[in-house]
Structures are given as C-alpha cells and as structure tokens.
Amino acid sequence: MKKVLFALVPLALTLTLALGACGKPAAGNGPGGSSSTASGGGCTTSQTITLTVDNFASNCYTVTANQAVTFDDPSSTGGVHIICTGQDAKCDAQAGAPSDLSAPGFQIQPGQTHQVTFATPGTYKIACTVHPAMNMTLTVK
Question: Is the pTM above the cut of 0.90?
Fold first, then answer.
C-alpha cells in the first residue's frame, strides 16, 4: 500500500503542475501575428500589437520600419480605445510617428484592427486616452 502511495504522489504533483500551465497564453501573443520575446530586452517582437480590455497585451514591442503594424482589438477580449503617441492618457506629438497617431489619435473597438506604418526608426511612446494606465513603448528598427 505504501509503495502505491509513494508512486501516486509524484504523479499527482506532476499532473497538477502540467495542468496549471495550460490555457495561459504568453503576453504579447495575439491573433494574426507571430511574436517572440527578445533576449535581454524583454520586448515582444511582432508587427501585431494586441489590445486587451484596458491595456496593451505587452508594454514593450519591437517592429520593423516600413512594414505595416497592426493594432488588433480582439472581439472577445478587447475594449474601446483611442490610441495616440503620448503617455498617461495624453497625446504628445512625436517626430517621425505616423499621422494616425497624432492627436486625437484613432479609435478602435473590439473586433477591429487598424494598420499604420512607421517609416522612421526610433522609440515611440504610445498611449490610450480612454485608459490612463495604458502605455507602451514601441521600438522601430
């Protein structure tokens, strides 16, 4: 009896840990775009920026210049947002940023996508004017 118990305890622990990790997507993974986390920098590398109900799926993205960047607001997990360059719910003009991100920004709702192209490499602060804590940094290479 004790042998069976000693065999079942490690099996139960392993099963519990394996099932606990199921169904939790990594931050920054969104439909329509592959993403990965850059080593050392911690930023999500993807041409798709996924939005949640009140935030960005990742607070740091790296994209390639002169390629379309898709802001994706999933119908099942998104929210209403107004996206612009800036920080803390305030739009601030940033040289080189696409005109769609100039004040007042663009509105996006659940189920919608919006594409912009960053022609100028650099680092951009992006915010949502609806959600004051919704900020991210976008690095364009």
Answer: no
Give yes or no for residue 14 having a pLDDT over 50: no
d(Cα 13, Cα 18) in Å, to the nearest integer? 9
Q: What is the CATH number of domain 26-140?
A: 2.60.40.420
pLDDT in tens, 42-83: 899 999 999 999 999 999 999 999 999 999 999 999 999 999
Q: Which two tokens stand for residue 130?
A: 């609806």
Segment 111-115 long-range contacts (CB within 8 Å, at least 24 positions apart): 111/73, 111/74, 111/75, 111/78, 112/73, 112/78, 113/32, 113/70, 113/71, 113/72, 113/73, 114/70, 114/71, 114/83, 115/68, 115/69, 115/70, 115/71
| Span 74-93, average pLDDT | 96
